[in-house]
Design brief:
It comes from Dipteronia sinensis. With 182 residues, the protein is mainly alpha-helical. The chain contains seven helices and two strands.
Length: 182
């Protein structure tokens, strides 16, 4: 049985080397402006497939590429949520998430898929942020149908800031850890 974070496709053909090359190819296409809303057109996926084959000598069908793309998006979102949490620290140079054993145990109980980040952070986090920054959905700022929409200037500014920054944590800016709670 496959784990939650590494499914059969990852074990079958997505070695760390292949994944890194794939992420770099995606990143280049995002920089070219090929990402449309939240994915690439079929023509671009075909080009990505060809470029990946040329680099790793292994053919991936477009369905495998899009599935991996979506799994990477999920990993990026989960890791971003983890490192902005008040009780965690993150060293982007060493790529290590730090906290006490008790905090880790409690957080892993609530979010089991973060267990893989206990010893090492998310590889290629910065590039994934550039790929997914504006295309990753979160549960922040959601409203139920029984709630009135935001109507104050502060709420509009908060919403605008969130919508324009995405979930990625910019490691070049100082973040106030008190902004994030359990």
């Amino acid at each position: 049985m496959a784990s939650q974070d590494v499914d059969y496709d990852d074990k079958a053909g997505w070695s760390p080397r292949n994944e890194g090359i794939y992420i770099r190819i995606l990143h280049e296409h995002v920089k070219k402006g090929d990402l449309q809303i939240s994915t690439f057109h079929k023509k671009v996926w075909t080009i990505i497939s060809d470029e990946l084959f040329a680099a790793v000598c292994k053919m991936f069908v477009i369905q495998n590429l899009t599935s991996k793309f979506n799994r990477l998006r999920k990993k990026h979102r989960v890791f971003s949520d983890l490192i902005v949490h008040t009780c965690f620290g993150w060293d982007p140079v060493a790529n290590i998430v730090t906290s006490s054993d008790e905090i880790w145990a409690e957080y892993i109980k609530r979010v089991p898929c973060v267990k893989c980040y206990r010893k090492k952070g998310l590889e290629h986090y910065q590039m994934l942020g550039e790929i997914f920054n504006t295309t990753t959905a979160t549960t922040h700022l959601h409203f139920s149908s029984s709630q009135l929409p935001p109507n104050s200037d502060d709420e509009r500014v908060l919403e605008d800031t969130f919508l324009n920054t995405g979930v990625h944590v910019n490691t070049n800016e100082d973040n106030d850890p008190m902004d994030n709670y359990f």
